[in-house]
Design brief:
The protein is mostly helical. The chain has one domain. The protein contains 16 helices and two strands. The protein has helices at 3-6, 34-65, 69-123, 169-191, 193-199, 209-220, 223-238, 243-266, 271-296, 309-338, 342-359, 361-378, 382-414, 422-437, 439-454, 458-508; strands at 156-158, 164-166. The protein is globular and about 80 Å long. Residues 1-5, 128-154 and 158-162 have low confidence and may be disordered.
Length: 519
Amino acid sequence: MMAEECANFPSYDKNKPPLHVFFRNARHALKLDELGLEIAQIALPASLALTADPIASLVDTAFIGHIGPVELAAVGVAIALFNQISRIAIFPLVSITTSFVAEEDTVNKINQEAQELGECLESSDVENKELPPKTEAKELLPKNYSGESEYKANTYEYTKSGKKRRHIPSASSALVVGSILGILEAIILIAGAKPLLDFMGIGADSAMLTPAQQYLTLRSLGAPAVLLSLAMQGVFRGFKDTKTPLYATLSGDLANIILDPIFIFVFRLGVRGAAIAHVISQYLIAGILLWRLIEQVDLIPPSVKQLQFGRFLKNGFLLLIRVMSVTFCVTLSASLAARQGPTCMAAFQVCLQVWLATSLLADGLAVAGQAILASSFAKKDYTRATETAARVLQLGLILGCILSIALAVGLTYGKVLFSRDADVLHLISIGIPFVAGTQPLNSLAFVFDGVNFGASDFKYAAYSMLTVAIFSILCLLFLSTTGGFIGLWVALTIYMSLRAFAGFWRIGTGTGPWEFLRR
């Protein structure tokens, strides 16, 4: 191996197993060095943007909770159903887009720098026989990359105003796929609202059916905007720009919070008003992101071939397996709670929304890890990849511990914001230890997702999650029957523990893309 290539590998004591990577430079986990600052600049805006939508849903929940417990439970089922079906399309789309865009942008920059350096040397009449040609940047791509032939040396174009716009085929692909999936999701949810709610445990004789169907049908009109927005967020994440999605999301969710009481109480639309406010906010977010993206990226590729739909579909299918496994576990838990009655479902909805919203804070670290790792693996900079994986995982554990304490205190005193019903509040109190205590596990599980996707380890991510889901579903069915509300949360705790363990296993054994840890 050449000296230059050896420099890309991290130095280790050969007697230490790959598992040691988790403790690498642990004393400096909170240090704001170059890597720490880059993670913070990506993760903090991403965390705020990711939690904004669940917080908006919590605002909906808080307003609707003052209408009545039946409406609260009904909207809880509708939100759970909408979110989980949306995740089937959103998760693969955003994750793949982030990794692909980061890889393409990295190689484009390498090509552009080589081109500019070559032009500079030529203009100076300096002979440089050792300068590699621009196209050799493609050699930096991972071995499993299938689209390297699509890259061009000329990776930018200039608009009439002189602004430089990128040629990123994956960005165009993401927008096309996102638009199609959004329209299909809206059609499925609107046409199948009643049978889907019946699957969730709300039958024709349930008092929850009418408000749940009203909310779900109206909110489904915003599905195209949701998918398109998140596809564009994946593009910006690939550019390591999480501030633009944050500003767009905050603008939309602020509009949602303002419109909620107006439509719900002033216009007396009830749950329909909450849904309409949410749809308006989603189209506002999509409009802002599209406006900003057009300024940076040439979204019309020279040919359809450059869109690389085959590459999207191949890896998208793998992540579809993963997200369907995750979706089924969470949707099943909500369905089992709904079958135990409105009181149990109302309490479970509050706990689940808080559980997911706070856990998503760790997803900001996952986004940072994915973007930096995708770039590092594209350049075969394994030292940078190792340092990044270790740092984001250590930060994830620290964040999880902080969230545990914050939720244990905050939810104990803040539960009255979600309901006035004494029975609902009692069940929420029972759920607090689970919601708070599982945060370290949740944080690690989310961060491991980002690490796996940054390494383009989509196959392992898919099949490991399928295995976890099968065991977790059996636990949910058994424990919900024997333990009721508590049993549901014990099963969810087991589920998150297994997700975190699957991530530890891949890196800790030094297999797949992490095989270099054993060299």
